[in-house]
Design brief:
The chain is of the alpha+beta class and 155 residues long. The chain has 4 helices and 5 strands. The protein has one domain: 3-Layer(aba) Sandwich (Cytidine Deaminase, domain 2). The two termini are 24 Å apart. The chain binds tetrahydrodeoxyuridine.
């Protein structure tokens, strides 16, 4: 389980990662911080591409980074996303937080399915935040009900 303190830490890591977003095309900067079962934190930011289709979301950068290091079980992910100036999130006095009126950056369908590959839908927590005091939490099962996953293929 993820307590309030861990949520706070994860959100701050996601804000930090948001500052590294490479988003010159959409100018929408996203940071993610993923906590593994053993308590390590893996950060990711969105990385865009001139082909557009080569763009990868912050959540998948974090997950693939961890899996590439041999880590495959996770407890939670925090996501902070919103408009950026000049294709990079500029730090304000509030760090890389997102303005109050901005919609939460809920994960896209592809990222939800990638989470489904490595995370238990009933317990994996998804935290979407504007800053450490302003966030929503739900499980993967809530965002991806009745899902297809590894068990369908005998894994
Ligand atoms: N993006 C993410 O990083 N995560 C999401 O869940 C939604 C979208 C990125 C992809 C692209 O660089 C930009 O936000 C606009 O779609």
């Amino acid at each position: 389980m993820i307590d309030e303190n861990m949520r706070d830490v994860l959100i701050r890591h996601a804000m930090e990662a948001r500052g590294r977003a490479y988003c010159p095309y959409s100018k929408y900067a996203v940071g993610a911080a993923l906590m593994s079962e053993n308590g390590e934190i893996y950060e990711g930011c969105n990385i865009e591409n001139a082909s557009y289709g080569g763009t990868v979301c912050a959540e998948r950068v974090a997950i693939f980074g961890a899996v590439g290091e041999g880590i495959r079980t996770f407890r939670a992910i925090a996501i902070v996303g919103g408009p950026a100036d000049n294709g990079a999130a500029g730090a304000s006095e509030n760090g890389f937080a997102v303005p109050d009126n901005e919609p939460f950056a809920w994960p896209c369908g592809f990222c939800r399915q990638v989470m489904r590959e490595f995370c238990d839908p009933e317990s994996f927590q998804i935290i979407v935040a504007r800053n450490p005091e302003d966030y929503r939490v739900c499980t993967l099962a809530q965002l991806l009900p009745e899902s297809f996953g590894p068990e369908n293929l005998g894994k």
